[in-house]
Every structure is written in structure tokens, then in C-alpha cells.
Amino acid sequence: MTTAGADAWLPYDEEPVLTPAMTGGHEAAPPEEMDRLRRYLEAVVADRRCPVHTAVAFNAAYFGYETGGEGYGNGPFDLDSFPSLTLGDEIPALPVGALVRIETGSDPLYAEIVYKEGRHPRAEAGADVPGWISGAPAGAREPGDHRIPDGPVRRELLVPDLTAFGPALELSEAKLKRFRTRRKWLNQDGHVIVDARYASVQDAEPGGTTAFVQHLLTRRRASLVSPLVPVSVAHLAGGSEEDRLRGALLGLLDTVAHALRTSEKLRSWGHYALTRGRIGAGLCDDGPLGGSDLHTLAGSLERGAAPAARRRHGLGGSRTVYTAIGAWLRGVDGAEPLLTGVEYAVSVCRANLAVTDFVRGDTDDGLRTASDVRITLDDDFESGGIWRSHHPGSEEADGSDPLHPAGRGWRETLDPPAPREAVFSPQGVPAEEPQADALPADSPLVDDRELGPSNYLRINDSEVCWQVPVRLAHIMEGRLPLSRRAREGLVSAGLEAAPVRMEISHPGGEIEASEEVQRVVLDLTGETGMLREVQWPIDFFPGLRLHVQWPRGGTVFRLHTVELEDPVEVDGQLIAHCYDPTVLTREGAPGSSRDGDSAAGLDTRQLVMRAVRRFGRLTPDGHALLDRSALPRGIYDTTPATHQVTALEQAVDELLAAQQLYAATGSRGGDGEPHYPARQGERAIALIGYAPDPVVVSRPGPGTGAPPPEAGAEHFVHGFLRRLPAGWEPTDAQRAAYREHCRHVGKADGWELPHGYTFVTAHSRRR
Length: 767
Description:
Strand content: 15-25%
Low-confidence stretches: 309-316, 418-439, 701-713
Number of helices: 20
Helix content: 25-40%
Distance between the termini: 31 Å
């Protein structure tokens, strides 16, 4: 543990770190107040042995957690009012952040719940858990259970921090070891497993801080209006009415969460924060659960679903595996000391962060292209978190965030997915499969009209806005199609023959001054109309997404692009702006450029790649799958010679070996139509696929820390309690000010200052 830095908050010695402005959420809090809160929370996270949940961080700032070993030891608590907790009992559910009393038959243990997870009885056999448990609601006992009663009960593991209240209430190591050995008050790991009872299935939804807010408003409401804390919520909210308190708590928790999330010294797994130094030290450790074991964990998620062997022209069958992180950690030899007490919570968070980094850095939105295994987070609460591994992963390219817990394991027991018969086009309609005699390398795209449509249309009284990706034809022909609504508005306004101006904003990109504002020709013939004689910047490429705005009745069109948070590299092309991967796959193929679109002059490998990208069945994330047997006549538009077929086969094998293409297996029905995945009872066919593999390229930039406030700026300080040196007493004026403060927050009793404290009235001062 460490002590607070010189500039971190000292409870009861300095003004509170929670302020009235923070009740409106982090966006309402002044930067200097956010910086002060963030510095204090960084010190708290560095001081505590456990991951610091948003609710625990709120407790620290609200009750005055003191770093350096004191914890909440000087806080204003009625310990007998804490909820009671007994190992193995059924109890009303408690959130992370609850202050509890663990019954022992003699002196109770006082603790703060710093972590909890689901511990389903059917998930205890090992790391591979039944899929239906992942994302299952509280009370579910069987797959697809529709008979979940009101007031469901869920088995939960709670991790208490028994050191939170300082050395005076801390157990000796010997006594703690006896408790763990007896397994009567704590289990062998120093945790408490209970059956948590909820009012409804909705109340049992994990994640967020809603349950903690409800806990404070009900079982801990007295603390919200207490004049003994550094500053009460009632004072911050300006009253003690239920709605005021609830709104203030939600705003304060949002502010605390933002402070943790935006700290450069911390990393978070969900609502749990750890210092980057502690995470890094664990990864550098050569012992159990160090970097080597966590690397093995990430690799095991891929290997668990990958087929045992690859065939020459395809992959193995479908397989889905659900891996529970907590159970996996318990299976590592020598890991027991790192899975007891609060260290278990640290190990779980560190393991999940290692998998997160693997998914972010070594996969394409969760897809490991080489093995065709998709790795996604499915449940972030049960058993320390459950990760889903599925093969073939390319069939599940739905654009969803692989790190958002989807709960597919449970959902698929309620509504099993129908067999997918094709890889879908962006509109969700199976693209037509070009036949071998209709696939010349330069024939028009079969999905040309459906590719990259306008979307995200916004229409109001003052403007029409939409998004559209740039197409290769737009660049080559110097044009831009309009939206149908914009065309109708222009016609209605009688602007068919009006001269129009186009303004282009391309932040972070290359654009000439002459291209930023252009005179263009308005053509309102056709379904949508068109802007012609456009000079596209050299930086624009097929797939670049444009945001277009037309102010109603005006003759100006405003276009802008949006920078990616981090640039990516796709097939050697650096992309720094938002783009449509389907258009990039189709129109970024070999032989396609702003100077022309032809297969002339391409070598055999380039011809293969062009055919797969232009005519393979397309997925929304830019994958394309093509029947391998269609290549020879498709490329040459005639029956090729034997040496040409041999050259094509060799080119395909080389591209597969270089992982520029991948192999898959489909089937062909009696009507001659190909299907993917393969249908049972149909003849198997070999497919080859193209998968774009965006590689993130870091964008250097200056730090984002807020500038220090102007020296001498006036700062308003709200009233707060301050600890007095030994032997000192508050003045009568301070006692009277404290009584007035109590009246303001609605406290009808307990108006006298606590012994050893004074009250600092609200005032202004200069920094």
C-alpha cells in the first residue's frame, strides 16, 4: 500500500472533494474540481489492495477514506446498523459498496463488499461451462427456463475487504486463517457465498450502479442526510427529498466513474479500477497467473473452439465454447494465494483485461482470421466473466462490439438461431452467386446498386442530412449522388438551374485549398439527382464515409469526414477516417484505382484476389466468400488452358499460405445454388474467402490534461467538518453554524458537533 500524494485530499482536514456541481454529472463539474477528485481517487486505488469499484470509490470520497492504513477508521458509522451477512444464508441482495457485518457467533467482522460475481451451481465443474448459464437471468435453473418466479434468488460470491475500517477492527492473520479453515463464517478463500434474493428479475440485472443507489436510498438513507460526513448528499443536492437525493446520487456516481475512467494512471475492467503499475507488475511476474499464464489463457480461448485439423480446401464444423475466467484461474497450479481474499478480485480483473487486450490487438473485431474463431465477451458477471469462442467465426460478422456482454448463451436457448444459408449482403439479402460462365474479372458488380447506400438520414425544417460512402465511380467521374429527399426539396424550391457551391471539410487529411470550396453543377434528373464536376481530394478513396448537409432552400452542400480514434492499415493502405468496409473490399481490389478499373496487366495472384473481392458473397464487415471452382472461367471468361488452371491453383495456395485468403467449406443444393455454412445432405464445395484485417496504427498526440486554473481565481468552498488538533475546541460561533447547517440538510436531531471536530462555514477564497 502507498500513502496519498502531497496534493491528494485529506478527509476532515480540507474541503470535500464532492461538490454541488458534481450532482449534475461529470459534464457539469468544473475541470479543476474533476482534477482534484481524480487525484484523490488515484491515491485511493493505489492504497487499497482490492480493485476499486465505482461504488467503493464513491464511499471513499463520501465517508472520507484515509490512505496510509486508517481507511474508514475515523468515519461517522453506526456499525450495528450495517446489514448482517452469514455464509450460506439467503439474504436480500447486496450491491458492491455495501458496508456489512459478517456474523461469527462472537465478535462480528466489519467489512466493505468490494467485488461480487454470480456463482451458479451448474458452473462449478470447470472452466468450460454450459452455454445457457452465460447471460442467464437470476433464478434460472435450466436451459430456456420460462418459469422464473417473482423474487428470484441467485447464488453469489461476495468478496469483503476486512481491512477497510482500519487496524482497530482488523482481524489478526491467525484468526482469519482459523475462520477460513473452519469454513463456517468465511469459505476457504475468505469469501462469503450467499443466496441473494431480488425483488424482480429486472432488479437482478448485473452491471451499473443502480442497485447501489437504491441501497443508499433505503438501507443507508440516514447516511445521506448525516451532518457527520465531510459533506452530505442532502447538502450537495440542496434538500433531502427523495427525487433530489436520487438525482444527486446518480450524478455523483457518474462523476466518480468518469474520474476513474479518464485517469492516465488507472485501467478499468467494467466498474473496477486498478493502477496500471499493478497490472503491469502482474504481467511481468514469472509465477502463477503472471504474463505467461495469462497469455496461455488468451490462446486457450482460440484453441478451445478451433478445429483439430485443417483440410486442404476448408475448415472443420461449427463449435462453440464458453469459458469462465474464475474457474480457469482456479485450475492454474500454485495460484491459490492469488485467489484468496481481495486478491481473487485483482486476479479476475487482470485476467479479463489481458483477454480484452488480446481481442483488441490481435483480432479483427473478435475474429482470429487464421483459425476462423470469433472470441467475444458473453457475460461480465457470472463466474468472473464468461468468454464465448465460436468457429466458424466469420459467419457471425454482425458488427457488434466483441467486448459488450451479449448473453448469447442464454438467448440462444430461448430462440435458437436458424441455420444461416448465406453470407449476407449489407442489406441482409443473400447476394446472387455469380455462376462460372458469368464471372469475367471486369464484369459489373452484381450488387452494385445495393452497395454502400445512403443512410442515417436526418430531416427537419431547416436541413436534410445523410451519410454516404464515396464510390469508385464517383471519384473517376467527378460526381456525388444526392438523397431523394434533398432532390425533392431542391425541385420544390425551384432550384433546378441554380449555381451551387460544395464545401468540404476533411479534418486531419490532405486537401487543397481549391478543393475546400467548389462551384459544382446541379443535375436533378434521375431518382436522386447528382452534383457533377466535383474535384475530389487525392486523399479520398472508395469507401470513405461522407456526412452531407443541405440547408433547405439554400444552394450550398456541406460535406465532412470523421477521423477514426486510431488510424488503421488495411492491405497496406493507411486509413484515418471512418469508412464502409464493404465498399473498400469491392472497389479497393487489385486493378481498381481512381485512374481506372480493369484486370489488364495483373499477375495471377492479383487476378485471384480481384475475383474473390469483387464477386464473393459479401458480409457487412467486408468479408467475401467465393466458390473455388468458379475461378478459372470466371477470371478468363472462357475455358482456360491447362497451364492457366495450374497457375491459378498455385496462386490460390500461395495466397492461402500467406493468409491473404482463407479457406472454408460450403455446399451446393440440387438447384445448383451454393450455401454457406454447408447444409447437411448436400454436396460439399470448397470456398475461398477474403478478410480485411485492419491493424490499428497509434496516432501520436499531446496529453489531454486540463490546464491549471488561473492563479488568483476565486473559488467557492462549501461548509464541511474539519478535524481539530488534540486539546482544541470549536468556538460557539462554529457550533451555531453547524446547527444551522444541520437544519439546512433536514437533520432534526444530532445538532451538536462531534467531539474533536469543528465546522468550516461556506466561504470564497483565492487559489
